[in-house]
Amino acid sequence: MTTAAPELLTVPEVMTRLKVGRTKVYDLIRTRRLVSIKVDGCRRIPDDAVRAFIRGQMGDLPDDEAS
User: Fold this and answer.
1) What is the pLDDT of residues 28-54, one digit of tens each?
2) What is the pTM of this model?
3) Using CA atoms, how far apart are residues 40 and 16, in angstroms rounded to an integer?
4) Cα(17)–Cα(21) distance, integer angstroms
5) What are phi and psi of 38, to 5 degrees?
6) Which helix (DSSP H) or strand (DSSP E) does residue 39 occupy?
7) How many CB atoms lie within 10 A of CB 1?
8) Mapping DSSP to helix (H, G, I), strand (E, B) and coil, where does residue 2 land?
């Protein structure tokens, strides 16, 4: 049984997905709200980490705003 490795996103790709700026992405990484790894000095964010971050933010919304 093999599991697919998560797609690794660049900071600009995460900026596009979250519709935020570069500083905000690095702030989320610095505060450990968004998981990232370094590959030879290049910051990479697993796509499932971005989805988990979004799900976590959706959980913070009141029920009437979540839909």
Assistant:
1) 999 999 999 999 999 999 999 999 999
2) 0.79
3) 23
4) 11
5) -110, 130
6) strand 37-39
7) 2
8) coil
